[in-house]
Amino acid sequence: MTRELNQPLGGNDMPRFGGPATMMRLPTQADASGLDACFVGIPLDIGTSNRAGSRHGPRQIRAESCLIRPYNMATRAAPFDSLQVADIGDVPINTFHLPKCMDIITDFYDEKIVAHDCTPLTLGGDHTIVLPILRSLKKKHGALGMVHVDAHADVNDLMFGEPIAHGTPFRRLVEEGLIDGNRTVQIGLRGSGYHADDFDWPRDQGFRVVQAEECWNKSLAPLMDEVREKVGGGPVYISFDIDGLDPAFAPGTGTPEVAGLTSAQGLEVIRGCRGLDIVGGDLVEVSPPYDPHGNTALTGANMLFEMLCVLPDVAYRT
Ligand code: MN
Ligand code: MN
Description:
Strand order of the largest sheet: 3-1-4-9-8-5-6-7
Number of strands: 10
Bound molecules: manganese (II) ion
Low-confidence stretches: none
Shape: globular
């Protein structure tokens, strides 16, 4: 039996500036029933430490995604030839209570996504959300390998005395056994810290930490050969903080750091994940109030499309 696969609404059927305001103008549904992959938003920014605004990220990423066409002209990926994909909307978080949001998000993923064997691609939201997402995914996959793009390690123990915030999730992921440190890579770390050894804690957990200076002025394709070797051998998650990119490309974010990755290097990282058993991904920290021209949301939308293009079982037109 052949399935009728959802297709993004084409620009010759409805002008790109019209039609549904969903991710890539895909159909919506209330849960991931029957889907291989879904886009889902988490409009949460109450874990943010500096500039807020990423609560508006999912809506703006969807808006800027209206220009993305179904085929990847570089890799020839044709995700809608083989995968059933839809936008299942946003998680109804409690914007007045961050700890409660953790359980709201985990329960939502358990019931509406993981129960349907669907791969989530999440539109953030601040980076706090990776913790409740992986609490859900662990129930199906166990500890995950991790490809983490970010200017920051996000391994603080406490922030203002709190264990849950956007700068702590990768320490919690290790403590809770949600990721395997020996199958984890962080790419793009840079800037100023509180202690000179801030990036050594993740190294002590077995992470490969690739500071931004190691990425400057070169292709990251060779690095990704090493990354696939490091994180492979089991299910892998991609967590992409848009502040991993340089503020020249992605100014609309809460915690910008100078001299980051280029957009092209961001594409190289995600395309370099092809062949891994990717079981989920997120694009976090797009803050539309600081993104007056929409470039950050546009870049984020394209990074999510690229994640879709490297999922297992994606068709390629050769
Ligand atoms: Mn982050
Ligand atoms: Mn960051």
